[in-house]
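Example record

The entry below shows one chain as it appears in the dataset: sequence first, then structure tokens.
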Amino acid sequence: MPDDNTNENPEEQNENQDTNDDKDTEIIDSSDSLFGEKDREITTEMQESYLDYAMSVIVQRALPDVRDGMKPVHRRILFSMHELGLRANAKYRKSALVVGDVLGKYHPHGDSAVYDSMVRMAQDFAMRHILVEGQGNFGSLDGDSPAAMRYTEAKMTKISEEMLSDIEKETITWADNYDGSRKEPTVLPTKVPQLLLNGTMGIAVGMATNIPPHNLGEIIDALQAMINNPEIAIDELMQYIKGPDFPTGGVIYDKEAIKAMYVNGRGGIVVRGRAKIIDGKKGKLNIIISEIPYQVNKSALVTKIADLVRDKKIIGISDIRDESNKEGIRISIELKKEAFPKKILNQIYKLTPLQTSFNMNMIALVDGIQPQLLNLKQVLYHFINHRVIVITNRTKYELKVAKARAHILEGLKIALDNIDEVIDTIRKSDTKEIAAKALMEKFNLSEIQATEILAMRLQTLAGLERKKIEDEYKEKMALIEELESILADPEKIKQIIRDELNEIKTKYANDRRTEINPNQLGKFSQKDTIPNEPMIIMLSEQNYIKRIPQAIFRSQNRGGKGVIGVTTKDEDEIKSILFAKNHDDILYFTNLGRVFTLPVFEIVEAKKMAKGQPIVNLLKLQKDEKVTAMFKIQEDSYKKYLVMATIGGTVKKTEIEAFKNIRQNGLLAIKLKDGDYLNWVKESGDKDEVILVTKNGKCIRFPENNIRSMGRISMGVRGIKLKNDDQVVEMEVSENPEESKLVVVTENGLGKSTELVNYRNQRRGGSGIKTANVTAKTGPIMKAEIIHKDQEGDIIIISRQGQTIRLNLKDIPDRGRSTQGVYLMRMKNNDKIASISIINKEDEGEETPPEVNEKQQDLFALSKK
């Protein structure tokens, strides 16, 4: 195409034509254009046209005005209803009437755009304070569409009337409508801070806005504070505006995120619905959801939960019912008896919109034309400035009206004071025009005064009527003086704003619906969504590990064959088992004296017959390094030491605090002699007693305070003197020896219990005394455990080939120190005992009601009876 600067001189055009004869494309003179317009570069035309289109969308459709918080379509709807007389105290009229009036006079777009906007203004779950009072079906939280506009009816609410108050008093600017046939307001003279009150959402070209609703009382308190102190900081404003206040309630987390959002004008906050756990029927628990996050579809939420249950991503839910009614939202989730309600609720928060994010982007039009990203203080400033302009314009208008009336009253007073001359002058005039001119010349009156005198009725001559004029004149002069003083004193304008804001607050403000939780809500970890079920952790000699639900092993009678508890790898044996719960942290001590940490739930959960996974996949072990001891960390334990023992009889005591922060690579727990290995770790309270048992049937008992506390990298001291090929097979720590028993189990499945008082106290480092009669029938001692005399619970015994039996502790007979014991588990195929573990009765029951997770700050109460 030709350049924009194509020369229009005919001669130069001919020259250009001659030079381009050899070209296929003919250059057309702009004067030959079909419409007589100049040819332009297409890139320039596209740029300018697109910018015009973008600005039209930004200003005329998508973004709200910072002053009245309205987009053009909402402003036109309210103004049209105002013109139609659909006030709050009027009768309802068909929505189609309003939509047609808006379309015909002000908004040349589709009727669905107007009706959908009006519908949203009438939805109490979308607006913090509705601006349209609807009658009929205006949609629901379930995403139901509203009825057609021919079926519904509407009128203004009282608070929307406040937004058009004083619109007839020249308070705002007006512009031609789309066809120039009438005027429409460019902004409303609102007394209500609508932009923050109800928020808005809009997508323009190249920008978007998303502003949450707020509490009216809080906004007005912040406006009052800003009027009193224009230099107020956003931190101080947040003492009044705590955060968004959604019409659907819920809980907002993280005060710092709210502050960042208000300071920057954009940012995200986490919003949760409100849920609680209550007692249900037949001893079951129910989760009741009473509030959902803003803009979340309730029906879709229920469907999502049902889909997760169907897909077995959430286990433990037996029924879901939407019991919502006019009183409010109620979603009832019935749980199974064995379910863990807190974990299921956390899973719902994580996997459904019951926990969601609201991302604010506070973009609005400043001065009606300039889109800007605004922070909280700027939004409040623009509203206050708008109110100053509105009140100033209103005062000027009222002053103009008052002066005009006072001017007329002055003329009437002059006429009444000279009534005889006025009557005589009028009587002598041929026409009213001549009479008016004569009055103007004789009494120095204006044309409007003379006209009013001529229109004055005879009844005005009565004494009381004369007094009314005089009183009205005095009132107008006082009003003029007051209005002039307001215009002359900005402080009086500010006081008017304060008074009007207080009036709005008194009439319309209500309590906050959305709770603000100042704590940060972190991301869900795997721990937050895994039930804290009792588990049995099994570790094999070749360091294969797995966790199995404790309930799998039923209690059996003494002397039984047990059940298959594990399938081991070829030539592998079960080394040890530990009872814990999924959320417990376990310390793993290795034969080389190092320690690692790992929570239970990170161990693979397997079936009874599974082999488990190599622990080297979970911990960074060295070559030939194996886990030999597992210790469960108990946060609420009063014991502050760990006592360690090696197979060579060395013992060591170290404070638990030394193992608080363990690196991924592990820490050194004890320094070992060549050929010695760490094998046992127990907690102690400094006043306990240590018991060491050897495979050849020796046992030593000595006070724990015989061992001084040492650092992590120290070697330890001798605990028992070993003879020949003997070695330590168990180390126990007893808090109350007088009330305790020592249970020993031999390699061939025999066992017994002996009161600990039968073992005299010795000094550390001795040879010990006999604890069992070790023979070929019994085989060497494999394991030993300390239990309380009256302890209720079970013992789980596992063989090297994975045979497992669970016995009641009462089934283990009491025997003397030098006896062999009785068969607890009969071996087959040359199998041998590998490990034993004690399960207390209180540990195997139903999970106690979960407490609130401090990290997540779950807002629900448990009322389990």
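Notes for this example: The radius of gyration is 44 Å. The longest strand covers residues 574-581.
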